[in-house]
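General statements about sequence and structure are easier to judge against a single worked case. When preparing material for the folding task, we compiled for one chain both its residues and its backbone structure tokens. The amino acid sequence and the backbone structure tokens for this protein are reproduced below:
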Amino acid sequence: MWSVSCLTPMACHVSVFSGGRMVKAAAPEQLLTRVQQTYEVVIEIIEAKNLIAGDRSGFSDPYVKPAVVIAEGIEYKLEKTPKIKQTLNPYWGCVREVTLSTEKDDIYLLFEVWDWDRIGRDDFLGRCSWRVPICDIDDTGGVVLDMWLMLEGAPEVTTGELRVLATVALADFVRGDWDPEADLARTARTSHAYDRFGVPLPPALRRPYLSWYSYLAVREMRQLAAWGETLGITNPIEHSREFFRQHKVKELVWLGIPRNRRGEMYLAALAVDSKRFGLASNYYEKLCEASGGIQNQHFIDIDKDVTRTAEGKNTFAATATGRASLKRILKAYALRNPVLGYCQSLSYIVEALMFVLTNEEDIFWCVGAGSPRSAFVDTRPHARTCLIVS
């Protein structure tokens, strides 16, 4: 069972750190008289990733100070976690619990990560918070969240990620037969039947993917902040290939390109406009028209592979419209590059590009710009492999 490990609540004005902004809680006299409810809050502080180094060794000795705040200005400070020495990716697995009463105001979960120092004051590594609306709890009886939160050392400055498993529920509801973990598993079964690429997830992987999906969302926020703040990019497509050879840009690429910017970044990095230069504006349309009257081995293979490329997936390429688009792109590319023509992996490359580009012609030019200038075809009996030489 859970073990209670909280201190006596202290009445105070509390500044809640939420979404990069400090929000001051209201004083008790400012609140209207409401009916009080008793809630049980259970927090498991699981792990953290990508913390900043607080020591000269390049590592930290991190621990977490958790707290629960309600809008009446009452803060419940919970027992801090043990310190984990010499790591930037610590695992704690510590559970903290508190019972509180509030007059129908939202509950805030606060977390501060610190670096333990043997001599002197401990170093602050970052903080994060999560608001739990009371209306969500009253509607269902309880809320359980397995989530990653982005740590911030200062407003809009990310310093890592923290994973917590939090349960906030009415006290009477908790004492019943409610199983938070079963509730999470049920949510995972219905909301994560497929991964973010449309691939079906086995039932056994859907519950772990629930927290992993949350981590991907936090990482995406970190990527957006890094690209936007470091370079101030508003329209990367205007930059030449030399832009992507800069050391600073290479570091950002290793960090990851935000999904909502990948399409335009691919177009820019592959210098698609230079490939189009000097060609008719309807060049791609003419290739599509020409492919309609041709039947060769490449086109036969394309017809076979288009159906099975996205088979069983929940993607655009799995729809009738998507399959038709995929087929047009591959056949047009086979005509543009007759040396290579078609090999099976190309259909998966085009399917992946469909996640980040919505214009069919842009996808065609990305495949063409990233394709090899020559290819050696293995002609041994029963061999169907292309050895690509760029």
Q: What stands out?
A: The chain is about 35% helix and 25% strand. Residues 110 and 129 are 4 Å apart (CA to CA). The radius of gyration is 27 Å. The mean pLDDT is 80.
